[in-house]
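W.,

You were right to be curious about this one. When I first looked at the sequence I had no strong expectations either way, so I just let the prediction run and decided to look at it fresh. Below is the sequence, 465 residues in total, followed by the output.
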Amino acid sequence: MMKRLFIAFFCVLATVFSCGKNEEDQYKGLDSEEYTESTAVITNPERGFYSATEFHSATKTPVNQAKVNAARAVGRSILLLEYYLTDYMESDIAEDYLTLVRTNFQALRDFGAKAIVRFAYKDGHEEKDRPWDASEQIVLRHVEQLKPILREYSDVLYVLQAGFVGSWGEWYYTDNFNMNPQKEADYAPRKHLLDALLDALPENRQVEVRTPTFKMKIYGFALADTLTQAEAHTGSIKARLAGHNDCFLASDNDTGTYHSKSEKDYWKAETRYTIMGGETCADTQPYCNCEDSNVPGAVSTMAAYHFSYLHLGYHPSVISRWKKEGCFDQIDKRLGYRLVLREGHFTTSAKAGEDYRIVLKIDNVGFAAPMNPRDAEFVICGKDGKAVKTYKLESDPRTWHSGTVVLDQTIKLPEGISGEYTIALNLPDPETTLRNNPLFSIQLANKGLWDESTGYNTFRTINVQ
């Protein structure tokens, strides 16, 4: 009995003082390599600041290569496409307008960007602008018309904002969807719309609602019923309903976005696994400051809510404040994910047909993990840069939350090879339409690793015997 107690006591001490297997022991006998972090803003997919473009029925100019190239040149890979269906409030959407929607998506696919998409009927909330939206019947018919397009181009659809309801599609000023819903029946029209939107998209795409109240009230989720890692990215309604805050940092409750601290905590938890973004709407101190001693500052608040994207054009005074106070560059780099390879540990001798261990330590210094599906693989390349063999990683990039990620995987080198080869981390878009386009692959925030022609992050050169 005393012997068992002594062993147990020793094990506790070993744990407290790290007398067990430490990091040095784990990588003993392996070659090690360190990598240099980049300070550049990186034009990576599905993250960052965005610019907005409105499309009315009279709009004749679609998204084109020049527009996408201009965005990418300053580190932007996402656009907000706002479609105003004002002329179709009592009819089907015209075919030429549907063609415009298709043309815009095709341009994104061709030239290397993705879209946040919102549909609305009016861009004003005064009496002269009424009705502010179409009837539920018309709205559902419009979703039915758009469904084939949204599914065909879901590869370049970053996220769909629920839209349709109210002025600007922001779910407030509404004539047909109950402006101040209280009872379950009051929310029914909005639920019918959300059901239709979720059905219009593949299960791997999310729909954003304007406030946490809408997600909870419409589908009966409790404040304590937040997403778990096991539930995340499963295709369930709970996992696919995300949020956008279009009055970010405007006040203590972001102008009615939240009704309580509990709702804030709810969205902080939910956004670990769902897309979060939006725009600021007023230069209100101290809330929009970079940092403030009285309230959480802009940077720490974005981190708490796992912000992946933000409007660069609105509110201009807030953007100017961040530039003046010195946090704009940090925000620009950290929106969404930012993956920095710190160190690698490798089997010392590379032999054809034998096991080769790879351990990579990556820091995600961004506010969020990548949110949409993403392939991850190691690639062995010859001197010509062409892939010899690919190995799927056991780790899902959507679980690479802020903090340190360790990739530890043993691969079997190909039989019959010899000489110099390189090993790369490849993080391509999984959609067949985009997979081989490096514009849609993730670049690590390191110097000297990225190959823009392949989308590979080459981290190791080996001499295979």
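Here's what jumped out at me. Confidence is low (pLDDT under 50) at residues 1-20. And, maybe more interesting for your project: The longest helix spans residues 95-111.

Coffee later to discuss?

I.
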